[in-house]
Amino acid sequence: MKAPLLLIRAPDDWLATQLRDWAADRKWVVRTANQWGAFAAAVAPRRPCVAFVQAELTTDAWAVALADLHRRHPDAAAVVVSDTKLSDDARASVTATAVDLGARYVLFPPLTRQGLEDVASGLAEVVLARATAAPDGDPVLSLRAGDFESA
Known about the structure:
The chain has helices at about 15-25, 35-40, 60-70, 90-100, 115-130, and strands at about 5-10, 30-35, 50-55, 75-80, 105. By secondary structure, the protein is an alpha/beta fold. The longest helix is centred in the C-terminal third of the chain and has 19 residues, at about 115-130. It is globular, with a radius of gyration of 16 Å.
């Protein structure tokens, strides 16, 4: 299995800075993309992936990229992050759109490093478990030292 991928699409480096230490501790590859085309090109099938997409709500490009990510790599776990303060109705609308397009979480301010890391950790467990599952969905038995618990 290829090293897991933490894919980040954001207009600046803030989001990547918040998650870089988390990824390094777990030996995840971090790819950042400031352009939507580079984001789409970075998605590699058959590689566990957690993607963070910062939604710039003045355009629908984030929604198009999220839909494309879900189409190309349906096993990737996507998180939409907005740094815009919105009304409750606007939050509900953005959340519904993001979830319909494949997002597992939608995060709004206040955003903290710990909150982002917690979401990444939970999703990492899910994508890694799915990546190590047998074709019939049962986990693959690993007998490597440290990969199993004694009874």
